[in-house]
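Researcher: I'm preparing a figure for a lab meeting and need a structural model of a single chain. I don't have an experimental structure, so a prediction will have to do for now. The sequence is pasted below. Please return the structure as tokens so I can convert it later.
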Amino acid sequence: MPVGVVTSFDDAKGFGEVTSEDGATLFFHCTAIADGTRTIAVGTEVRYDVAPGGNGTWEARALTPR
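Model: Understood. Here is the structure written out token by token.
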């Protein structure tokens, strides 16, 4: 599983971004947080899966804090 850091998260809108170790930025929705909390702090180091998202983009899924 790739490793990255949550670089943004909008609690009210329920989405954010993860930046991978190689600098790629991936969108994620709060439902992709594996523990079901639907919120995560900016700066949290996470493991995640990459899956196809909408409009031909890639998204982070199954985010798990390290």
